[in-house]
Specification:
With 251 residues, this protein is an alpha/beta fold. It is built from nine helices and seven strands; from the N terminus they run E-H-E-H-E-H-E-H-E-H-H-E-H-H-H-E. It has one domain: Rossmann fold, CATH 3.40.50. It is 46% helix and 15% strand. It is globular.
Length: 251
């Protein structure tokens, strides 16, 4: 690709750290201009932006809470002004609260609303805002970063599991609604060794959790980036799929 005009463009939500950062860098290395979205972690997002730009492509830093529909629409407009196009959308932004499932009273309505707003409504809002741009791309794709929690009902909280189950179903609904112009898929990781996980779990707890998996380790962000990028740019006929990447835990 000889110029910025020729380069395709991608938006990665929640790209300041972890999987989002790994995906943003991987897409930049593949020749995509990358919009780096974040909501709170500004310094880390700036680091991601620098890593993206270090590959020789353009980067765009966008602060936006994905649960804010007006803000999301403004973010899509800024991408159009800056890049003039959008080819790939990665809905990675997510949140949770670590609450034992049996402690029902701890899962307040406020916590329910925050999890569903970010994890379920957010990907819908971002996808909806980006559809007009994506439809102009000859190979448009959306990848939702979901979780095996949406299949097995085991995870950080009941609300988190429910939000990811909803995201898995919504992935299929959007795949039908946006076909054939836009492919929509999801990657469903097991535990991922990130700062976010280590905030709540020690090394010993993580090792104990994965010890009986066929592949007994937590995923690294790059493991999930492999699958995200495959669904985004490594296939042209795959849509409506929720691909589990969990070391065989749910097999």
């Amino acid at each position: 690709m000889d110029s910025a005009i020729d380069r395709p463009a991608a938006l990665v939500t929640g790209a300041a750290t972890g999987v989002g950062r790994a995906v943003a860098i991987r897409l930049a290395e593949a020749g995509y201009d990358v919009a780096v979205n974040y909501s709170r972690s500004e310094e880390e997002a700036k680091e991601t932006l620098a890593l993206v730009q270090g590959t020789g492509v353009r980067g765009l830093l966008l602060k936006c809470d994905v649960s804010d529909d007006a803000g999301v629409r403004g973010m899509a407009a800024e991408i159009e002004r800056t890049f003039g196009r959008l080819d790939i959308l990665i809905n990675n932004a997510a949140t949770t609260f670590f609450i034992e499932h049996k402690h029902l009273e701890e899962l307040t309505e406020e916590k329910w609303d925050r999890i569903l707003d970010v994890n379920l409504k957010g990907p819908f809002f971002v996808t909806r805002a980006c559809v007009p741009l994506l439809k102009k791309s000859p190979q448009a794709a959306v990848v939702n970063v979901s979780s095996v929690a949406g299949f097995v009902g085991w995870g950080s909280s009941i609300a988190y599991c429910a939000s990811k189950g909803g995201l898995n179903t919504m992935t299929k609904s959007l795949a039908r609604a946006l076909a054939p112009e836009i492919r929509v898929n999801a990657v469903c990781p097991g535990p991922i060794d990130t700062r976010w996980l280590r905030k709540w779990m020690s090394d010993e707890k993580i090792e104990s959790m994965v010890a009986e998996y066929p592949i007994p380790r937590a995923a690294q962000p790059e493991d999930i980036a492999d699958t995200v990028c495959y669904l985004a740019i490594g296939t042209t006929l795959t849509t409506g799929q929720c691909l589990i990447v969990d070391g065989g835990r749910t097999m």
